[in-house]
Amino acid sequence: MHLELITIVVADYDPAIDFFVTALGFELIEDSPAHTNDGRPKRWVVVRPPAATTGILLARADGPHQLPAIGNQVAGRVGFFLRVDDFAAEHQRMLSAGVQFVSQPRTEPYGQVAVFLDISGNRWDLLGPATP
Q1: Which of 1, 18, 110, 111 is most buried, judging by how many CB atoms fall within 10 Å of its CB?
Q2: In a domain? residue 20
Q3: pTM of this prediction?
């Protein structure tokens, strides 16, 4: 058993794909036409970090009831955690790609961490190895 996908509600597909692929370095796994449960067209868009098994379904907000979820997936808390092997290199690469960090890097018992925002405003932890 494994967690295959999680959903992030986004304003539009293409800017979200660009952010996750270009700024975060994820792979675009699938971008296929699909339909809502009531038959309207949508896209099935999945991205994931290289070599990961769990992906993110980028779901365009469908109507006014879903719009408030954009950037507020987990009520303003950090809800997503991106673990990397080389924290300093990934932090610098992401800064150069325009990723907005809302905290300076710091060291915690579980490793290096800095909080950043995705394209929608959701909070993520960039996590690196613990330093001796």
Answers
A1: 111
A2: yes
A3: 0.93
